[in-house]
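Quick board copy: two proteins, each given as sequence then tokens.
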Amino acid sequence: MREIRWTDDIIEKQRALKPGDRNYSNEWVMMRAYALHLNDQGIRPTYARIREMLDSLERGYTGRPCQIYEALRRLYATGQLDRYPNGRRVRVWERTYRSIREAARGERCRQSTVRQNIARAELGWAFLD
């Protein structure tokens, strides 16, 4: 499967193409390219954002979670994307964790302790998102 480079006008170009046209990209290629683009921009590639992109193509794609997962599975396996993008990132001093659970593991405490430290505005503990 070929990879494409995401540009600002790619949605308009792809909307005009039909299957079989020279630069037509299928659903999976578009999902991968968009997820990598969002990740490069520092935006989390959530399923909701990917569904919005698929809706804007006006091709009738459903964007079911199982389809999105299968399209992005190789990116998850190679570490190009975080596996669980919906967690709230936590900063503890200079370290950034991708979720409360990971922060608890990294700091060797309970998840409830992480939540309490953030709620009490303990020095060095904060949500990033």
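And the next:
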Amino acid sequence: MDFEEFFEQYAALSTDAKSKLASCQRLLKRATGNVGLGDIKAGNRDISALGDSLATLAEAYDTLRSAASAFDYKNYMESGDFARQFAACCEAEGIELEGGAGLYEIFPYRVRFDAENSDVYVDKRKVSCLRPTTLAATIKKNRTKLYAAAFNPTQFASELAAAYDTAVLYQQRERPSTRADKDMPLSPLYAYLAPMGRHRREYDRKSYAFDLARLFATPPVDIGDGRKWEFGPSRNNAQAIRVTNQEGKEFFLSTIRFINAD
């Protein structure tokens, strides 16, 4: 089952119904005008013609309703046709799609298909869209807006540095030999940035990953205390944060450290 083929047929029927509706509106307007002028004979002829036109509109309506009702959206979801067409639309839009079995990552979004109930979720929000082209285009548009939003890399890096310093301090209590500029895993630093539940509701991990992606794309500069940031690799990528840039190129961010800017 292909949604675009279905919609092409439905759109043709809709155009026909729209034409018949316009005809009814014209006849009604003409009849009202004639009666208003006192030409009752002409008005009656128009009203009679309107009755015939309404009958053809009713037939067009029945055909349109039958066409929409015939689309088996439950089977469309459960058969995997929707998922396959959505993947193809994402590829056409230049969107990198990760995952499968109804759960996908499109950085910084998570898309989930509930085939049993024929529902689609973007992050935790249910969206009323079973047209793959529309869903893919909407995600691309929203992601473009995110990347275009104002971002102060120095301010974010300064806040991240404070979280980094706190994490280093805790480690130094356990191991005094811990370097002040050691590589720290990025994933655990989120808890220092958003320590309480209300903070995490306002600033979730998706937002954190997105800010990291934009910081990664920014050349390091002095954050105001004589240090700059430096991303680094890790031997354990299990906690790495997957991000993509605006062109869809994939990166895995594992660690960060703050070092002398000179």
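Board note added afterward: The chain has a mean pLDDT of 91.
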